[in-house]
Structure formats: structure tokens, C-alpha cells
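Lab notebook page, bench 4
Experiment: in silico fold of construct C2
Operator: M.H.
Input chain length: 55 residues
Purpose: comparison with the prior construct
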Amino acid sequence: MKNAHLIFITLLLFTLSGCSVIEGIFKAGAVAGIVAVIVVILILVWIISLFRGKS
């Protein structure tokens, strides 16, 4: 019975560490996505201001 508890605790530790790695990847992806959206919006505003300046 002690071995079953030890195996369960070991499995739980590996599972939890994997979740924290995945969480970090998704957080980095979310930040990169937000930055990409902001950059695209800024580029669109810059292009629109170029065309408005010529009129």
C-alpha cells in the first residue's frame, strides 16, 4: 500500500510540473498575440495617416 501512495505522489508531481510548463507557454503566447495585435493596429493607423496627409 505504501508503494501505491508513493507512485501516486510521484505521478501527481510530474503532472503538476507539466501543467506549470504549459501555463508558461500559453502566457507567453497570449502576450505575443497581444503585442502582435497592437503592432498591426499601429501599422494600420500609420498607413491611414499617410493617405490622409496627402489629401
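Observations: The mean pLDDT is 82. The helical segments are 2-54.
Next step: discuss at group meeting.
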